Amino acid sequence: MPGQSLGLIETVGLAAAIEAADAAIKSAHVTLIGYELTQGGGMVTVKLEGEIGAINAGVAAGVMAASKVGTVYAHKVIARTAQHIECMIYSADTLGITAAEPEAEPVPFENPLTIPVRNVEELNVEETPDQSTCMDFSEEAPKKEQSTVTVNNSQKPRGAGRRK
């Protein structure tokens, strides 16, 4: 989260908060951190994170959509949050936070095929089978005869004889 921007939308009622979160996520590349219910008054705070431009667009879209459903009490964008306020953002009161799953350990790959490797210096010439390549042939492919092309110069150049 450090270095990311934080977007907060505070609404009256859960329906307006859900509408705000839905519009913000659909309009910009932002991540929903969760929502927090306040102590009384029916206030709900939606928490979003992402890049500053995306947060600005997401909060603006969320405020507009939530104001059609209910009342938007406040909204705020904080660019590049400080490192020590994470405990306030990811508090125990924030609902909807999904715990990050631990990454599974990679399974080691076992190759069922083993290919014997021999050092080139150990090979004897008698052991290697006779292998011929395309470079071994001394005959060259027959060359095609060059054909001559005659050009008829008696024709008028293009565009000659046209009116100007």
From TrEMBL:
Task: Give the pathway.
Answer: Polyol metabolism; 1,2-propanediol degradation
Q: Which Gene3D superfamilies match?
A: 3.30.70.1710
Q: Is Nucleotide-binding tagged as a keyword? A: no
**Where in the cell is the protein located?**
Bacterial microcompartment
User: Where does the source fall among the domains of life?
Assistant: Bacteria
Does the keyword field hold ATP-binding?
no
- Region Disordered: which residues? 125-164
Q: Where is the BMC domain?
A: 5-90
Q: Which UniProt keywords apply?
A: Bacterial microcompartment
Q: What main location does UniProt list?
A: other
Polar residues bias spans: 147-156
SMART domains, A to Z: BMC
Q: Which family does it belong to?
A: Belongs to the bacterial microcompartments protein family.
**Matching PANTHER family, A to Z?**
BACTERIAL MICROCOMPARTMENT SHELL PROTEIN PDUJ (PTHR33941:SF11), PROPANEDIOL UTILIZATION PROTEIN PDUA (PTHR33941)
- Can you say what this protein is called? BMC domain-containing protein
